[in-house]
Design brief:
single chain; 48% helix
Length: 648
Amino acid sequence: ESASNAGHMSQPRIWAPLYSPNSSYIAFGPSHLNCNAEFPSDRKNYNSYADYIERNYNVVLNPTSHLFVSQRLWVLPNKMVELERGIKGNKRKRHEKTSKQKPLNEGEEAQLDGLDAVLMPQEACMEARISDPALFLHLVFLPAFLYHLERRLVGHEFVLHCKENLPFLKTYLSSENISMEDILEALTAKSCTLKLSYDRLEYIGDAVLKLAQTDALLNSTQLRDWVSCLHEGHLTALRSALGSNSRLNNAAVSMSIDKFIMLVPLGRGMWLPSTLQSEIRVPGEETQQKINTANYNLSVKVCADVIEAIIGLIFIKFGFSDAIKVVEGLQVSLETDTKDIAPRNRDYRGSSKIREHAKLFLGRQTFNDESLLVEALTHPSCLHKDVPSYQKLEWVGDAVLCLMVREFIFREYPQHTVGRLNLIEITLVCNESLAYLSVNGGLHRCISHENLSLPHRIRDFSEDISGKEQQSLWGTEPPKALADVVESLLGAAHIDGGYEAGQSAAAYVLRPMLTKVQRNLESSSSALAMMHPKQLMYEICGQTLKTRIWKEHEFTSKHPGALVYQGSNFVEPNAHGDGLVCQVTCCGVQLLAVLDSRHHVARNRACALIGAVFKDPLGKMTLDLKRWFARNADVNNARPRVRQRENN
């Protein structure tokens, strides 16, 4: 049907220009202008609208043909974001465009918000196959409505499945504390590209499962006697095997939870309602073509993540004890029996002052078994003593600390992505932060050890952090034992007083760091300064930059004449020196080298300098780096390439 037959419109219609059939417009009716009207343009001289169409699209129009008030139908969203109340279309940012057509007069303004108003020549248009705008828009958004309707139906089916087959989940999913949005969040994979997925719940569920399986190994009827004899590394490997993706996947498959996982996004050729066939027949062809969902096959990792997300959801809504019941119901733990554990003879009690200091550090006034405090402060180098080392308690404390930190940042920053939460977690639990808390709390004077190098290393670290802010921790290399005793004391608190005691002790110990993190995250610049230098460099530059550690004399022979950054200046390295150089390169081109006596400090300082350059591109440090950069370009006979990369 030709659009030229529509003299006056009782209802809007959808038109497509003959010269651009893939473009769609909603035509509302004729304006007071025709194609002979003057065409407004600042770039070229067009006599009229007809002249513009003919010169640009080679279509000759009748000058008396009417111009219709129209609006362009831009690319419509192929998915919708489900909010807490109702459904709202995706917001697509669109650059403002200067209309070539004459602006509409008064009374001819746009009739639909968000669509550009234009004047269309009636003679050069044809009606679309579906020309009713209301019907067209209903059909366009129908897949999105069906998609979200099916998601809710899947959620309801999952609840019914749990009521009939998984009684350990029945009570929780039927509770008013859990909404359908919470259930859908736990079942939705990231591949659906929706606003909410199981990502955050899986993040907290992983920590819950880690502590639950730690308790299971400690109280296992078969393994508890062996756990006390194993090294920390072996205990970690055993816990990892207990919570491996394959075991969690087997739990999801055996309980038919995998059938309710949603991972296919709403997109053309990728999604069909589950009640329709997944194969379509093309007219004129005998074979059928299957909807391509090969990229969205259910993997072992996705099934495991959903199990952890369900555990995380129960923990957030009901607490740790209820999450333990779900872990046991999912059969991803071990059989435990705390009643038949025989009391172990612990005659070692150590110094009363050290025990009181340890309790003060944990913020606890009483301890049922104070021999745990002595064990938590005994270094593995004490081989001849009857007191076991802190390795088992450190392994327990690692899980205690992980859950406390993750729960804190999960609740404190509900809008942060998992990537952002990981960066905050790394800052709180890294070796430097825990060592700072250990020295600040005086634990370094309580460690029982026979390592001859440990006192010297502790003294160097104490001097490095004396009077400095937390950001300067990244320029230090603390002994691992300082961080280990913090975790081992938290493990002792957990074993002695249970879950609540361990979490309270962890929150008390970390309160200085938590306060500083909250304050620094209020501004983006402080948040970057707080971040670990290596994480900061990769956060800004991705995987483009590489770091490598050289011995000073090897670096000098490999890069003769190159400068290195030491202290606060660029210097020439010693060809016979015994220091360590961290080299930062970009696509094989050397950017920076930092010299220090410790490789850990050299790497952190190099990453921090690179991060400072990108954060403050006009600062003094950048000018110094450019001078070094130019000099090294001369040395390596690569000035054109290096200068080009530098300018880029």
